[in-house]
Design brief:
Strand order of the largest sheet of chain A: 2-1-3-4
Shape of chain B: globular
Order of helices and strands of chain B: EEEHEEEHHHEHEHEEHEEEHEH
Radius of gyration of chain A: 31 Å
Shape of chain A: elongated
Helix content of chain B: 25-40%
Order of helices and strands of chain A: HHEHEHEEHHEEHHHHHHHHHH
Strand order of the largest sheet of chain B: 6-7-8-3-9-10
Largest interface: A-B, 25 and 29 residues
Number of helices of chain A: 16
Number of helices of chain B: 9
Strand content of chain A: 5-15%
Distance between the termini of chain A: 20 Å
Number of strands of chain B: 14
Distance between the termini of chain B: 24 Å
Oligomer: heterodimer
Structural class of chain A: alpha/beta
Largest sheet of chain B: 6 strands, mixed
């Protein structure tokens, strides 16, 4: 009994591990996830390498020259050259704004300058016109420089000492500190909580989706080429299903282990400690529970169909359940103890992902953990039985897809 | 070895298999015959315990089905399928293991069979790289690897070239010599006729004829005129004294009506075609089937002929 299930498990595991699709998924997923997390900050934070020319138009005549000088001296490139060369294009009360703007726009078009600022009379709005408006850095720098300049001018107008004003400028950050159950300070800030909750959700999501689909695909392949007849004459459907779930679970754990090693290595590199060991153990437990539960659901939902397309119509609804906690990540982070979040945690389809979300944010109460684990074990037991009944009939049914009514009848008739 | 009693299977509304019974002894080749859709494959699936029968019993050497009797059976399904991307040796080891073989033992046997079927040295090729005929050989190995006591072959010859058909027949004779029981399910009557010791003819879910091949043929007596000729034989269907004519390209099997003599028939044929050979024989299985069922075999008959190259069968 066990030997045949193990033979199936071994086969499923080795054949999938050796497949190109698996290798690509294994390597590509962390690369994509890292890329998604790291690349934007790299690009946004990237400094200019050459001096850029921008113009200034100031119809008020009071700020233009000082602004140009300040912007030019304030920011320098790595090689010491100024980051911006600022050309005062038209400054003074007698400036024809329309004409000056048209003229400056032509210069931009000819490539002489990259863009230009219009310090218009209407207060608190400054325009920066350029072909490229996605450059956040320049916008922020113009704002900062201008604010400082205006503040300085006002201070002077009031006859105050600029040095005193500098002292008035208070800068502070609120640091979020997470307290553990015992009230001890934990070394995890908001980013870490967010990243770890998000990373675990995504991992669980990707694993369940990819292996759930692998499971369905392998069943449907065997159905369509009729290998399944040889299989179920060699071993019982129960052994076959158990073997498949076992083999693909091992596959999922391999995948997760591989990613975990990468994750730990990376977080060590950046001096981050994503989760505490006790949390990690619990997360792995929910991983396995969720994995097994969804495996049963996928088998039950997928095995009556003859083509992947038909099966996908059903399985794609399952994906929605998996996405839900990802959508809820932000509100859950604000108030992890909220009643509705607790309620959602007790829906078996959501339990593993909700827990993966909650554990890094705030460790749920022990009774919640205990009862959800029991709930999952019971759910897995019944889901496996139901899936087994559907599987036994489903794998041999060809013809048209079964109706919901037939589904239910298959489940009832053991 | 196998005892099937009153096996019955009902599919929504219709009886697919209706109280079919037969026995197979050791060292016997058993022809399970009938047109497409007669219920052969459903019967086989129940014997293999792929389908649960609605009525009747199946015993193997007197024992009812159990997980351990599974390993006594070997099965080549009609619809051929293998894992396309997997390698030959891996695939066969898996099937061997599923039938309770240890891997080391399975490996030796696979090597043996590959040699025997001219596939030696190709253990690491992927299944999809093999020709259709070779894939069929591979599936056959999967069916016999664990040395089953009862081997069930569903349309084993369809899709095989004549050389490989011969090879398969030799192997079947070998297995028979070793005392294995073999069920040969086919709609190709002439194949079964030459190979089987026992037969069961199924039509529309019912066993219409069963017993030892020799007995069955004797029961129908020597009342068939097998003729070979040159010329157009189409008229023979309407010849007086001929109950039924099975026409092939240059030969025909004429079933004599009661009262008709070979002599009178020959006298009628002689002026119309150039006769090359005339023989009074037992009727072919094909002809017997027509007598029993009283209607032509779907997908067989005019073009089938004694070479037995027929279109491949469909479902059931």
């Amino acid at each position: 009994m066990i030997q045949k299930a193990l033979a199936v498990a071994r086969w499923e595991y080795l054949e999938k591990v050796k497949s190109k699709a698996f290798l690509i998924g294994l390597l590509l997923t962390p690369i994509i996830m890292i890329a998604m997390g790291v690349l934007p900050t790299i690009f946004v934070g990237q400094e200019d390498e050459t001096t850029r020319a921008i113009g200034v138009i100031d119809p008020t005549g009071t700020l233009g020259d000082a602004f140009a000088e300040r912007l030019q001296t304030r920011y320098t490139l790595k090689n010491g050259n100024p980051n911006y060369v600022v050309l005062p294009l038209a400054i003074g009360r007698n400036v024809n704004l329309e004409e000056a703007e048209r003229d400056a726009a032509l210069r931009v078009a000819r490539g002489e300058i990259e863009g230009f600022c219009v310090l218009s009379a209407s207060d608190s709005v400054v325009e920066y016109r350029s072909k490229v408006v996605g450059d956040f850095a320049i916008g922020m720098r113009i704002e900062e420089t201008l604010k400082e300049l205006i503040a300085d001018q006002r201070v002077k107008a009031l006859g105050l000492d600029p040095a005193i004003v500098k002292k008035l400028d208070v800068r502070l950050n609120v640091r979020m500190v997470k307290l553990s159950e015992e009230g001890k300070e934990e070394d995890t800030g908001f980013e870490k909580v967010f990243i770890s909750a998000y990373v675990f959700l995504m991992m669980l999501f990707l694993l369940i989706i990819s292996s759930g689909q692998m499971l369905v695909r392998s069943v449907i392949e065997e159905k369509s080429n009729r290998i399944v007849e040889v299989l179920v004459s060699s071993c019982s459907p129960t052994e076959l299903m158990a073997g498949k779930v076992l083999g693909l679970s091992a596959l999922g754990l391999t995948q997760m282990g591989f990613w975990a090693v990468i994750g730990i290595a990376l977080s060590a590199q950046f001096g981050m400690n994503l989760v505490a060991p006790d949390q990690a153990l619990l997360l792995v437990l929910y991983f396995i529970l969720g994995y097994l539960f969804y495996a049963a659901v996928f088998i039950g939902a997928g095995s009556p169909f003859n083509t992947e397309q038909e099966a996908q119509q059903i399985t794609s609804y399952l994906v929605l359940f998996l996405i839900l906690p990802i959508v809820l990540a932000i509100p859950a982070m604000k108030d992890p103890g909220a009643g509705w979040i607790r309620v959602l945690t007790f829906i078996p389809l959501l339990t593993p992902t909700m827990m993966a979300l909650r554990i890094p944010i705030q460790m749920p109460a022990w009774w919640e953990i205990l009862s959800t684990v029991v709930l999952m074990v019971v759910s897995i037991y019944f889901a496996m039985i139901a899936a087994g009944r559907i599987f036994r009939i489903g794998i041999l049914s060809t013809g048209k897809s079964p109706s919901i009514k037939e589904f239910l009848r298959w489940i009832r008739t053991g | 070895m196998l005892n099937v009693q009153n096996l019955t299977k009902r599919f929504t509304g219709s009886l697919a298999v209706d109280a079919v019974s037969f026995q197979i002894g050791h060292g016997e080749i058993f022809g399970l015959l009938g047109p497409n859709g007669a219920g052969k494959t459903t019967t086989i699936r129940m014997v293999l315990h792929i389908l649960e029968p609605d009525g009747g019993t199946v015993t193997y050497d007197g024992r009812p089905f159990s997980e351990s009797t599974r390993n006594l059976l070997g099965y080549l399904p009609e619809e051929r399928g293998l894992y396309k991307k997997s390698r030959l040796m891996d695939t066969l080891l898996y099937f061997g293991e599923l039938r309770g073989l240890r891997r080391s033992e399975a490996r030796l046997r696979v090597r043996d069979w590959l040699r025997r079927l001219d596939l030696a040295g190709q253990e690491n090729r992927r299944i999809e790289e093999f020709s259709k005929g070779n894939q069929q050989k591979i599936q056959f190995i999967a069916a016999v690897l664990h040395d089953p006591v009862l081997l069930i072959l569903d349309e084993p010859f369809s899709g095989l070239d004549p050389v490989n058909q011969l090879l398969f027949k030799d192997i079947l004779q070998d297995l028979k010599q070793q005392g294995k029981s073999i069920i040969l399910s086919t709609h190709q009557m002439d194949q079964a006729e030459r190979l089987s010791d026992m037969l069961c003819l199924i039509n529309k879910g019912r066993a219409v004829l069963s017993g030892a091949m020799r007995d069955v043929k004797q029961r129908y007596g020597k009342n068939s005129l097998h003729v070979e000729f040159d010329g157009d034989g189409a008229f023979m269907e309407r010849l007086p004294g001929v109950q039924r004519a099975l026409l092939y390209e240059r030969s025909a099997e004429l079933e004599l009506a009661s009262g008709a003599t070979p002599r009178s028939i020959i006298a009628q044929l002689n002026p119309l075609v150039e006769l090359r050979k005339v023989e009074l024989l037992e009727p072919s299985l094909h002809s017997i089937f027509l007598q029993v069922v009283g209607e032509p075999l779907p997908g067989n008959g005019e073009t089938g002929g004694s070479s037995g190259v027929n279109a491949d069968g469909g479902a059931l």
